[in-house]
Task: structure prediction
Amino acid sequence: MISVVIVGTGNVAQNLYYALQQTDGVNIKQVVGRNSTHLEFVKDKLLVNTDFTNIPNADIYLLAISDDAIGTVTSFFKDKNGLVAHTSGATSIAVLNGVKRPGIFYPLQTFTKGKIVSFTSIPICIEANTKTDMELLTDLGKTLSNTVVEINSEQRKTLHVAAVFVNNFTNYLYTLGAEICEEHQIDFNLLKPLITETATKLNDLSPLQAQTGPAKRGDQKTLHNHLQLLKNKHQRELYTLLSNAIKEKHGKEL
Result:
């Protein structure tokens, strides 16, 4: 049985709590946060703790907190013998240098307030300084996910940048698509099968192979017609920038 203390009140902390409290082989000893009202998601109120100076011993402490807070919160774990692992994709393991046993437990997924996700297919990226701690993180990861991978801090930061492109930027483009539909009284739901198919075909094709559209074809007429339709300057600039990037990648001249 792996004993765990979860530190944090945000989306990652909540999802880890819901997943781990349903997992055999894991005992959640506490969920720690500064504000008790932000810990209302914890069903067993005996597990709630707002006192960072009174955290129990555990095998693993999961710091599911903002990147900026990791360095400060780490000071409360300097005397702990358990493994202290943060869940950030963009922060090096070096930020935990003050603890005895630093580690990383990074679930590569987007977490949204109010939406609980299944960890089964979420890759969990781990890092530690010793073989024993790596094995402990692997064991914890495997209670949740089918995919647990060892990735060092530099690789993880690179992976996080790639994740911003495929997730955050892509979702922003969905936002623009929704705005364009709304401006012309069109139901955005009509685009959802297209969005799903675009993502699904990456199971069989590389992103480069899966690219379609007027920019790849070098269809100048359609590109110019689209630009004339777009009245918003920001939308026009992004359309032009992305279209030119696609044409360059696929060798089409203006």
